[in-house]
User: Which sequence fits this backbone?
C-alpha cells in the first residue's frame, strides 16, 4: 500500500505527512 492512500484517508488529522506523532491513530483503507 502506498503512503499516499493512508495520507489521503487521514488528511483531516495529518497536516504534514512528514509529521506523524506517536499515539496518533490513523485509518488504513481496506483493512
Assistant:
Amino acid at each position: 500500500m502506498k503512503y499516499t492512500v493512508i495520507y489521503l484517508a487521514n488528511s483531516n488529522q495529518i497536516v504534514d505527512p512528514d509529521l506523524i506523532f506517536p499515539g496518533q491513530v490513523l485509518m488504513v483503507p481496506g483493512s
About this structure: The radius of gyration is 9 Å. Residues 1-31 form one domain. The chain has one domain: 1-31.
